[in-house]
Amino acid sequence: MVSVEKAATEDITPSGGLRRNVGLIGLMWASVGSIIGSGWLYGAHDAVTQAGPSAIISWVIGAVAIVLLALVHAELGGMFPVAGGTARYPHYAFGGLAGMSFGWFSWLQAATVAPIEVEAMIGYAGHWSWARHFQHADKTLTTSGLLVAVVLMAVFVGVNFFGVRALAHTNSAATWWKIAVPLGAIFIVAATDLHPANFHSEGFAPFGAKGVLAAISTSGIIFALLGFEQAIQLAGESRNPKRDLPRATLGSVAIGAVIYVLLQVVFIAALPHSSFAHGWGHLHYTGDDGPWAGLATLVGLGWLAWVLYLDAIISPGGTGLIYTTATSRVSYGLAKNGYAPKIFTKTDARGVPWFGLIMSFVTGVICFLPFPSWHKLVGFITSASVLMYAGAPLAYGVFADKLPWLERPYRLPGGRVISPLSFVVANLIIYWAGWDTLWRLGLAIVLGYLLLGGYAYYAHSRNLPDAPRLDFRAAQWLPVYLLGMGLISWQGGFGGQGNLPLWWDIVVIGVFSVVIYYWAKATSSSAADIERSIDEVVVTDAPAH
């Protein structure tokens, strides 16, 4: 039997398939390039309209939540540097049914980010007269806008076909720009006439604690901070994953969190009082469809506004590019675990999983139909992303108990406390997204079970050698978890029936999460089954052309 350490580090052999040629900067820039996307251009504006100046607290809470999840992923990424890692950890810990479920959450999240960034690019381009006919008045795509969106998705896929090394160089150059522009906006706007009274003149927290909490999930805060997992998804192509994965994961979160908090502080302080004299919920000024560019014009920095309009193309474009990569790598991981047809594992001469890239293009185009605008898709992506992240703390608890001897290049201090805490925090973020978002996510989950479950049934019925091990006992907690979250959201005060008052709903989510966490640990796969699942990586990750 192949050793667990060997299985964790030999995702693809050098003779074909994915190639290990991405260093620390490439990994970190993949994550930072995903974090600094369209979220920074809208996040500060939308958060302050929902929470007032207390949106700063919302950003801090959101950053802490993402850090907790990133810490867990950092240890797991070092232990298992495999392509599409977030789709594989629950598979190792709980067998096929849970692995299939969280793999679908992971793919769903990755597949929908590229189209939302395309929609953001088209929306921001509306500043120029030649692009205004790409959207209707309600910001949804017109027929010509849909054609442009399809072309942009094709460009993302085309760049990816040059291989991950070319992508790393392309994304690295774009990421330097994407970091420089928001930092420049922070310092240049801060050098103008700031108004400290803005933080209290209309109330620091005009919408109370509920506004602070709701803004975390619904204003784009969590969406803006998402992306640290891109280094994890590229683990199978890292030159030195044991050293670089933890550094890239935590470093990218730190960079993103500092930038976003500073953006919020400067945005609030720079606004003239007249723009929110009727309350923060009625914030309005000329050009606020592009909030930061409009603010730059408002304070007399017209030249900066032009730079920001240009960045509104580059930043979302860079994020869409790397998520196109991630989608193909997650589908690669799903196929390696037997949840999807093996054609998703086939690679070309450059080591690119070509069929996964084609399907990411098709999926992106389909997304433009039911979600034809940025705002219609952002809440859905946030919930799917955090649901995907929630699988990592559960798997962490299992590995800590049953594989304590496994080498951990990065060992999380206090992991046995941080792991269940991060699971609670993930579920709170999902809950704060609101019932209107979660019932739609529920429909997408059902669709996933039909697609992946249908293939698993086909694989078993044909006795295919890679048919996934659907361990129902180890995943017995999963339907209770998903249905329970839906029920609590339906009864809660964030778009639900309002039968759970604020604070009591947080207690309910906390208790429910802890019960699920320890139930999952108690019924997880045995150590022998976990080792077998990890060993299968070597067998199934053979070169395919």
3D architecture notes:
- With 545 residues, the chain is an all-alpha fold.
- It contains 21 helices and no strands.
- It has helices at 4-9, 24-35, 39-51, 55-79, 89-125, 143-160, 164-190, 208-218, 221-225, 230-233, 241-270, 291-298, 302-336, 354-367, 374-389, 391-402, 415-432, 435-461, 478-491, 504-522, 527-540.
- α18 (435-461) packs antiparallel against α19.
- The radius of gyration is 22 Å and the shape is globular.
- The two termini are 26 Å apart.
Keyphrases for this structure?
mainly alpha, disordered N terminus, disordered C terminus
Quick one: how many beta strands?
A: 0
Straight-line N-to-C gap: 26 Å
Strand/helix succession = HHHHHHHHHHHHHHHHHHHHH
Quick one: biggest sheet? none
Which of globular, elongated, flat, extended, rod-shaped describes the shape? Answer: globular
- Radius of gyration equals 22 Å
Indicate the proportion of strand residues: under 5%
Protein structure class: mainly alpha
Helix proportion range: 55-70%
Query: Unreliable stretches, pLDDT < 50, 5 or more residues?
Result: 1-16, 538-545
Q: How many H/I helical runs?
A: 21
| Mean pLDDT over all positions | 83
Provide a compact summary of the structure.
The protein is 67% helix and 0% strand.
Describe the secondary structure blueprint for this structure.
Layout: H1 4-9, H2 24-35, H3 39-51, H4 55-79, H5 89-125, H6 143-160, H7 164-190, H8 208-218, H9 221-225, H10 230-233, H11 241-270, H12 291-298, H13 302-336, H14 354-367, H15 374-389, H16 391-402, H17 415-432, H18 435-461, H19 478-491, H20 504-522, H21 527-540
